Amino acid sequence: MNTPIRRLAFILLAVLGLIILDLTYLQVIAGPRYRDDLRNPRVAADRSSTERGPIVTREGIVLAESTPDEDSAQTFTRSYPEGALYAHAVGYTTLLFGSAGLERSYAQDLSSDSDLTISGVIDALLGREQGAEGIRLTFSHPVQETARQALAGQTGAVVAIEPSTGEVLALYSSPSYDPSVLLGESAAGGDGLAVDPLTPLRDRTIDQILAPGSVFKVITAAAALEGGLANPDTLYDDPLELALPGSTAVIRNADRGTCGDGTRVDLATAFRRSCNTVFGQIGIDTGAETIAAVAEAFGFNDEIPFDLPVLASSFPGESLAGDPAATAQSAIGQRDVQATPLQMALVAAVVANDGVLMRPYVVSERFDRDLNILAQSDPLELRRAISPGTAAALSDMMQDVVESGTGRAAQIADAVVGGKTGTAEIPGSDPHAWFVGFAQVEDRTVAVAVVVENGGDAGDEATGGAVAAPIARAVMEAWLRS
Fold it and tell me: Is the bond leading into 212 cis (omega within 30 degrees of zero)?
């Protein structure tokens, strides 16, 4: 064989070797990943027509189920009986739009082709078709329904948590959508949802960060208390406005007046009246890095471990260090602070749980076709965020807010209720109305966060106390009385 032919043969063999290596990679190494990738049209088509397990609430109310098609017992149609009420958390699995929510996070468990369970092994040995696993959620149907009714179509979000366990009782985002419009081979309504300026596909409870406004003062107060820099009786100057160091900007209170009589005011009173001037000074005195450390203990600046992806809330202590003006503005929940409603509900939950942060979760158990429990979620303590003493002091101050401060609209008869209102200023737009808090009756406790974006129906007249607190009261009462 002459040299040119040998060279050509070598090149052909090399190319053939590369093809074999590439095919081996695609089939053996990357194959499982592509097989499980829900963006793969073939996977989406298969999973949109195969049996999937049910998703139910804690009470057993069906949120998602598969039913056999009339003309073929081997193909199934997915349906969502509660429609828009649980759309964001439950999500969808469709041919054209892929999947989202728990339908995506728990796709392997819900699919009938998931790993074999004991019952699945028996089915296989007996030649029976294997059933898909179902999942039970921690959602309380009365609480979720109350969240929808109380929000009354306004743009915003409601989160409710059992503080001692981390069970999520409600996640409601408005506007919502009906997952059924995404089903089928045409699903014309889905394109409209994707371009809707109100972004109904966005889960505002976990997939959007907003300025928290004065509800962040819970963390600022916690940082001062935890660091031994203050107690509820510590006195502060009570100016008409706080001049910010190195800046021409000032911080004013919401009513443009002083917090008290214009001389001195204690921390508890400043908290109850939500005084920006005092908390701006507390932020300067405490320092950005100290506030950031406490915020991070509550869950800021990190991903919250959860059954669904959660945007990280932010308090950029490192970039604020050395900038007292920016620190003061951030200490009152403005400027550089951003938070999800889930994060702010966890802040209230920590206070209600003696300073301990629990892992939030929404999937309580997995079960097979015969309702045998396959796996359960147990409460998990993530860490102690603040000391019991700091938690007790914050709890007392938050109760004062509801008893005689800006949060009176959250009062519930015969219940211990604490909270903090917030009215986050948004440049060029109406303010966000916030409320975070907790309520307890005997052995039942609930922590909540409510945000109504751009003031909802109240517009520029909105305050957290007038707009968000009544929603929180209704949601908390739904759990306490259920």
Answer: no
